């Protein structure tokens, strides 16, 4: 089985998760796995299964990943993502479902995984300048969440995502 891990990553969090999944699958399975940033994927038809990684932008897949996902048909597809919010929040859950919605009609969804990733410090600085009535204005709760986001993706999350996708790809 030919497997592609394709990811989009602005600041490196989703790339870190993608590389970790790749290393775990590559080392332990008798599968033909490649990894590429989405903009380097030439021929989707070369692969039987695709694991797609995106960073969450406006509560769903970032634009580049969204365009890529719309092109995928008749594949076994896994989805993984990183975001600034907590993965166990409604926002986290919905951010994965929005990715799934782009793929589920034309593909078999084999699994999905989401975890936090450090939020760009320039964005946090910009939020700090906003009026307190702005939706994105900084609060103590948000500052704490951004500090926690910096700790992710961690090794445990990389392993969990790898185990999930490995099982779903290899057990027939
Ligand atoms: C422009 C922009 C928009 C973002 N929008 C969201 C969002 O809607 N929800 C969220 O939880 N995190 C949001 N984030 C945080 C990123 O999804 C998060 O930091 C992610 O791990 C970045 O991944 P990357 O390092 O692979 O680019 C946003 C970040 C940026 C820079």
UniProtKB/TrEMBL annotation:
It holds the Pfam family Flavodoxin_3. InterPro entries: Flavodoxin/NO_synth, Flavoprotein-like_sf, Protoporphyrinogen_IX_DH. It comes from the Bacteria. Residues 4-163 form the Flavodoxin-like domain. PANTHER family: PROTOPORPHYRINOGEN IX DEHYDROGENASE [MENAQUINONE], PROTOPORPHYRINOGEN IX DEHYDROGENASE [QUINONE]. This is Flavodoxin. It comes from Clostridium saudiense.
């Amino acid at each position: 089985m030919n497997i592609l891990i394709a990811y989009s990553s602005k600041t490196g969090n989703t790339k870190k998760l993608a590389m970790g999944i790749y290393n775990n699958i590559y080392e332990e399975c008798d599968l033909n796995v490649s990894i590429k940033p989405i903009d380097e994927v030439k021929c989707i038809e070369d692969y039987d299964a695709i694991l797609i990684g995106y960073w969450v932008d406006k509560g769903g897949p970032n634009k580049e990943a969204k365009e890529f996902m719309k092109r995928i048909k008749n594949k076994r597809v896994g989805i993984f993502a990183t975001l600034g919010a907590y993965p166990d929040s409604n926002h986290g859950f919905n951010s994965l479902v929005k990715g799934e919605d782009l793929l589920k009609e034309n593909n078999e969804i084999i699994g999905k995984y989401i975890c936090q990733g450090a939020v760009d410090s320039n964005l946090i600085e910009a939020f700090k300048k906003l009026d307190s009535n702005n939706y994105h204005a900084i609060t103590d709760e948000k500052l704490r969440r951004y500090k926690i986001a910096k700790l992710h993706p961690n090794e445990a999350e990389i392993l969990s995502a790898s185990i999930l996708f490995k099982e779903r790809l290899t057990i027939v």
